[in-house]
Amino acid sequence: MGNRTIVPFGPQHPVLPEPIHLDLVLEDETVVEAIPRIGYIHRGLEKLVEKRDYQQYCYVAERICGICSFMHGMGYCMSIERIMDVEVPERGEFLRTIWAELSRLHSHLLWLGLLADAFGFESLFMQSWKLREQVLDIFEETTGGRVIFSVCDIGGVRKDISSETLMKIRTVLTEMEKELKETTSVFINDTTVKLRTKGVGVLTKQMAFDLGAVGPMARASGIEMDMRTQGYSAYGKLDFKPITNDGGDCYARTRVRIKEMFQSIDLIRQCIDKIPGGDINVKVKGTPNGEQFIRLEQPRGEVVYYTKANGTKFLDRVRVRTPTFANLPALLETLKNCSLADVPILILTIDPCISCTER
Amino acid sequence: MNLNVVKKSPWILHYDGTSCNGCDIEVLACLTPLYDVERFGIINTGNPKHADILLITGSVNEQNIPVVKQLYEQMPEPKAVVAVGICATSGGIFAECYNVAGGVDKVIPVDVYVPGCAARPESIIDGVVKALDILAEKKKAMPKKRIGEK
Ligand code: SF4
């Protein structure tokens, strides 16, 4: 047995913009155990439901996380809508789907960039983030915000997208697809990239299942789970299949996410083709009473919303189980027996979002 | 923005308090090709001992107060602190949460406040430029010392 050393990782670390602290127990260069310490970003915003009424809480839900902000808002609104039996107009549902898929696209691009940065490929990082800016431009044009939009509302959406803008989005995406192909081919074919990701952090199908992994993490280990197949919002009317890969390593996870980006582009195109006319929202009156359980697919995986209302303006409870939280056990497992140099890549491979995990 | 007057290329240290990530990504977006502050020599360093300006997003809480203080103390003089986003300024939308102590100025002196939720990259860059002037002033006010003198 070699010498044991403990190396602290974080909370302020160049690889991750967000603070998480890990105590890495090393035996020579190999990690034998990783002990996480969290709580740096905990704000306690679930308890804020007692101070903000159910409509104001929309804004708080959007700020659970700045990356999948739209989908958090959407999940919260959907739970209230189901409690109150509100039927969202079809155009509203399609618009929500478009914004949700654009969010997935920007989130995956952001992740690709950070991954490239983690193994020191600076220009690839820049390239990915440059592509991401195009998506943000679409957001800015359609909603007015770059990262936080506040367009999702209980009963539908606040803003409509005109048909000219929809066409414009289509052309932008077609152009982008070409560039995306070029950039992502580096992640798939480049030897140096492969050396860093292939065979690193293998998570077998059984392990992924036992540890309760979700999202791209589970799909890259061969588990076919994608909450979008439930058909919420407009997903029921679109044609798609969950993307899986049997590799289980970092390379497989990169491939899954890359394919998902093209899938998102395809889904947006389908939405633009099929979007019906009509209203985008309905007026919501009264107060909610009852409870609801909702599952959505976010860029990082399945998110669960539990909401309980008591007939007044203020909700009893909102509980969120975020995808990163579900993926943490899998991360700690893959960190065992890896070399110290691989730690940043392994941490990034689950696409961690600490701010929604700790809320 | 007139950057011709900039005589110094400041290095930046970014710390994420309890931000929702919205402001964080915007800070990172400043470094990427569209805004590209790196062409002025502004670099995001991970080492507080190399940094001139501390950018903080998000408010502070019990757990990260010691971290923020430590980072600030490790930075060499002269130094400036920029609070990015309304969270870092006052706690913002989360001000009433039980685990939010308030704006960053509760713990360390803040020189520039950047408004917005999320703060736009343009205003973040503006904030950094403002901080440059403050840095220069602070430098002037510093007593002159010879090398090796305590
Ligand atoms: S100011 Fe707004 S966008 Fe920025 S960290 Fe706070 S809640 Fe998020």
Describe the overall structure:
The complex is a heterodimer of chains A (359) and B (150). With 359 residues, chain A is α+β, with helices and mostly antiparallel strands. Chain A has one domain (4-358): Cytochrome-c3 Hydrogenase, chain B, CATH 1.10.645. Helices cover 47% and strands 14% of the residues of chain A. Chain A is built from twelve helices and eight strands. Chain A has helices spanning 57-62, 69-84, 90-118, 122-143, 163-189, 191-197, 205-210, 215-219, 250-274, 323-335, 343-349, 354-358, and strands spanning 4-9, 21-27, 30-37, 152-153, 156-157, 289-298, 301-310, 317-321. A three-stranded antiparallel beta sheet of chain A has the order 1-2-3, with no helix packed on it. A three-stranded antiparallel beta sheet of chain A has the order 6-7-8. In chain A, strands 4-5 form a two-stranded antiparallel ribbon. In chain A, β2 and β3 form a beta hairpin. The two termini of chain A are 40 Å apart. Chain B has 150 residues and is α/β, with parallel strands linked by helices. Chain B has one domain (2-149): Rossmann fold. Chain B is 30% helix and 15% strand. Chain B is built from four helices and five strands. In chain B, strands 2-1-3-4-5 form a five-stranded parallel beta sheet. The model of chain B has no long low-confidence stretch (mean pLDDT 81). At the A-B interface, α4 of A face β1 and α1 of B.
